[in-house]
Task: structure prediction
Amino acid sequence: MPSGQGLLSIGGAWVMAAAALAGAGFAVAAYFNWQSGIAGEPGTILVIVSSLLIALVAVAKALDRPAGGFLRGLLSVATLLGIIGTASAAYLLHSEALLACMGVAAAGWLVHHFGRPSRF
Result:
């Protein structure tokens, strides 16, 4: 187990990563589906990139890669802002599946930061 994190905290980070990857998958599918109404839109590319960045940071947090306290805090705030921004974009793009994925990612963020560490 990585130092300083409990199993619940690590699980929240993995949930965040999985939800962000699923969100990126839904956005890619919507980008290439001409019936989606958002195919080929620049906002869809932005959502794909932001979802992949959220997943990258979540995997780094799950593996306990962020080094110092400042960097860890900065990545935590940036990840939360990325989830909120991507959820807002999903709402404006009328992508309910992506919005649901960002809701799950937000729940994973909450579990990662506020869940009690396991005592194993």
